[in-house]
Amino acid sequence: MLAFTLRRLVVALSVALTVSLIAFVLLHLSGDLATSIAGPEASPAQVAQVRQEYGLDRPLTVQYLDWLWRAVHLDFGNSFYFRTTVASIIAERMPVTMTLGAISLMISLVIAVPLGIIAAVFKGTLIDRLALTFCVLGQAIPTFCLGLGLIIVFAVNLRWLPVSGTAGWMNYILPSVALGWYAVPAVMRLSRNGMLEVLSADYIRTARAKGLSPAVVVLKHALRNAIIPVVALAAVQFGFMLGGSIVVEAVFSMHGVGHLAWEAIARNDFPVVQAVVLILAAIYITLTFVADVINALLDPRMRVA
Amino acid sequence: MALLEVQNLVIDIPTDAGVLHAVSGISFSLERGETLAIVGESGSGKSLTSLALMDLLPRRAQRKADRIAFDGTDLQSISASGMRKLRGNRMAMIFQEPMTSLNPSYTIGNQLMEALTCHRRVPAKEARDRAIHLLEKVGITAADKRMGQYPHQLSGGLRQRVMIAMALMCGPDLIIADEPTTALDVTIQAQILHLIADLQKEFGMAVILITHDLGVVARVADKVGVMYAGRLVETGSARDVFKDPRHPYTRGLLECIPVPGRTQPGMPLGAIRGQVPNLIGKLEGCAFRNRCDFAAGECAGTIPLAAPTPAHDVRCVRLPALEATA
């Protein structure tokens, strides 16, 4: 188990390094940074001064290593727009996005996994068809539509929940449902298929032949094997939620990282864009790593791989 | 009273092409401590018969019978929870795929102990001790260490031994072994069969052994039922069936295996021509007649039981004519 974890860690770190390299190179391919920073009306002398000030006259490898070294220490430089460090802006925005993502993931798992199990156990019955219909409807509604619909019903008409902002926990309910909903169909389908496959396995027949009750057969013997692919999917979905929270953050006026990324791109605020890309990638890689470890804990056969 | 009594068991499976008559009316009984071998080709309905006794048939298969009784209890009128109390407790099953019949996510020990604790309130320590004791009984060394291992860490032969130990956990009256050696190496096959036979003697269980290996049957069975296309074509004591096979199908089967003393070296073994008939739709007459060398017009009618001796039943209308020429 330890050897497995270490191996996965090495893989995760090399992926992170590759991503950082790509993020760095892409930014430098997007044009002359010194010119963009100095602005369109700057004289050649001013551009040259900017180039020297920001260290852009050094060789690319040196610039990369220097940037990477500082990024590892969470020093992403200063924002071009906000006169403060990138790290402090992100630190301020991150909790909103993380909270939103975590609650959304929880909501989608709590709805989708039991629904998938029930649909599989009652395969081919009305219950199964209702669950699948629910799924298709879920996939058909875009996040922003659902978000606006939720606002109209629960915030404007019923006045149960606030319309927007991040003042308290009540503010997170509607956006989390809107964002979490997006993952429900995929997770539900995977749980259902995983469960169906496992339920026809020989060891399920063995479990029934032992005289175990249907609840023990499904919840002990089947669920643990059926849930393995769902763990991996949940990790990926969480990554999507963090990246995809841009729309929800916009609809509900929440100042999270998604919103920040959108602002930064609009304002050519390169250090912020670069840092957001890198941090989201790092989170994604961490999630995948965690999913691998959980899978290995669930399925002893994977610990060798 | 017989431990197990089956009268006129029918298993129908609805398919898109029509109803598949997998088993069409078989009857047999089994006393305590007895071994019944059911032999037949793949698709003869022998595995479905064993699943039907445990009430583990696939959902779409339909089971009907005049009577299925286990130790006097009618298994057709019993509740689902009543059946669960019997299953694994008083009647246990060993399956033919040891590689996939154990749950990959739980340790051997967990799966063994569960077989006992789901039927009886016993302390974990007692369940563990019994599991280790039975692992040793089925010939697994370092049983204590095996308890903590996962199925993928064991070979096929070891896994089948674990399955046997699991079936023994509650001390059942009946063990149904559905081709327990098919997936194993030839050398391991003999070991496993001897093991089952020894354990049966030691614990006094009744055994239903489903197999297509006649050599095995000759060694371990008390009674034999020869199944063909969902029917029992010949039943009797192992001795009678092997010494004096009467049904043309049984004879054909016995000619397919080498027998020391009877088969001369270099002599070709027999083979039964043709193929097992399609069992979809209405079935009439003897199902073997299209492959039988002795078939005649009367074989297309209903086939009553011809009973030459009280304990040896044969379903063949040509029997008198056949035995007259022999």
H/E series of chain B: EEEHEEEHEHHHHEHEHEEHHEEH
Arithmetic mean of pLDDT of chain B: 88
User: What's the CATH superfamily of the largest domain in chain A, by name?
Assistant: MetI-like
Shape of chain B: globular
Most extensive interface, chain pair and sizes: A-B, 20 and 28 residues
Distance between the termini of chain A: 10 Å
How would you characterize the overall build of this protein?
The complex is a heterodimer of chains A (305) and B (326). Chain A is mainly alpha-helical and 305 residues long. Chain A has two domains: 71 residues, no CATH class; 215 residues, Orthogonal Bundle (MetI-like fold), CATH 1.10.3720. Chain A contains 14 helices and no strands. By secondary structure, chain B is α/β, with parallel strands linked by helices. Chain B is 32% helix and 23% strand. In chain B, helix 3 crosses helix 4, helix 4 packs across helix 6 and helix 6 runs parallel beside helix 7. The relative contact order of chain B is 0.14. In chain B, the strands form two sheets. Chain B has an eight-stranded mixed β-sheet, sandwiched between helices. In chain B, strands 1, 2, 4, 5 and 6 form a five-stranded antiparallel β-sheet that branches. Chains A and B meet through helix 10 and helix 11 of A and helix 2 of B.
Structure described in brief:
The complex is a heterodimer of chains A (305) and B (326). Chain A has 305 residues and is mainly alpha-helical. In chain A, 77% of the residues lie in helices and 0% in strands.
Descriptive keywords:
heterodimer, A: 305 residues, mainly alpha, MetI-like fold, flat, B: 326 residues, alpha/beta, Rossmann fold, 2 domains, 5-stranded antiparallel β-sheet
